[in-house]
Amino acid sequence: MIKKLIIFTFVLVGGSLGYNFFPELMNFIPSVPGWISHPVVGLLLGAVLFYLISFQAVRPIQKVINRIEKFFSEQSVSYLLFGSVGAIIGLIIAILVSIPFIALNIMILKDIVPLILAVVLAYTFFQFATSRREEIRRLLTSRTSKPDESGVLERKEGDTFKKYKIVDTSAIIDGRILDVTKAGFLEGVLVVSQHVLQELQYIADSSDSLKRVRGRRGLDILNALQKEDNIEVIMDDSEQTESEEVDMKLVYLAKKMDGVVVTNDYNLNKVAEFQRVPVLNINELANAVKPVVIPGENMQVMIVKNGTERSQGVAYLDDGTMVVVEEGQHYMNQSVKVVVTSALQTNAGRMIFAKMAHSQKAIDNQNDRKGKS
Q1: Which run of H or E residues covers position 313?
Q2: Rounded Cα–Cα distance for residues 304 and 297 (Å)
Q3: Going edge to edge, which strands form the sheet with 279-281?
Q4: What is the rounded average pLDDT of the residues 226-252?
Q5: 276 DSSP 8-state letter
Q6: Relative to the CA of 49, which of 38, 67, 154, 193 has its CA 20 to 30 Å away?
Q7: Nearest C-alpha neighbor of 93 from the set 111, 127, 119, 128
């Protein structure tokens, strides 16, 4: 439909130009038959010429229209309304200011200055109205009106404040973002930068089999997020030339969109905090909802590898928490009962220290005997 409308517009413009200017153009050419300089002939020639030109121009014009539609679809109604009113006010002021220049009847002042004033004032008032719309709204609201007693606070920052969640490569590969978003704990629009997509593709094409699996998992998670009906995922094709690093590009993109970075990367977390960009760390969320272990609590674990210290064994819980078991090296690949001695919480995750349950029983029995004696 847009393509036909563009072609139709070109035909109308070409026909109008041919009808108005073709006869005058033919007057400069001597010995031209009168029927050729007729306005109807000019209309037909102009329409045909612009019809042929439209086939070359329709694709770039369609791209521009699609970008404009995408921009306006992402904006709130209040943004568009206040922006339109501001632009109209700017145009009215430009017309009033241009009256003296038009009265001078000087070609440059009469034709060019009013156009420049119209563009500059319309843009200035558009930006002013959209950036200060909350203040303008409060000024227009009656001071005597009673505040809403429903208990719902007004979002003074605007409808799109912190709406966009810029997703990092690590959060996509991790995969837990899909479950968190499906559960409704991550609202707004997920923004995937083209640089993140390129990094995922690079990892998926890696010669290292482990990296290749992680990259393909990330692409699968991304496709799954896009197929969810209650999750909005958009691609950002803008170029961030401020830095060569993908992490810094994401930080600059979050600043530009007034968004939040979603990541698992500890270093990106710190860099974003330093740049005063809000961060949602999936690891911190997982640590916050993990069940708290108490010293003295019993649990059943599988020793899977040796620890760093002598006789230590390492096990993992279902959620990936590392459990370091004293004397656990002697029970490799066995499911054993252990007693929690302490837990260490770090930004990278949680570590649990434990000892074998039978050794704890021996200590308790020994203490009981000493108490009786």
Answers
A1: strand 313-316
A2: 21
A3: 232-236, 189-193, 164-167, 260-263, 279-281
A4: 79
A5: T
A6: 67
A7: 119
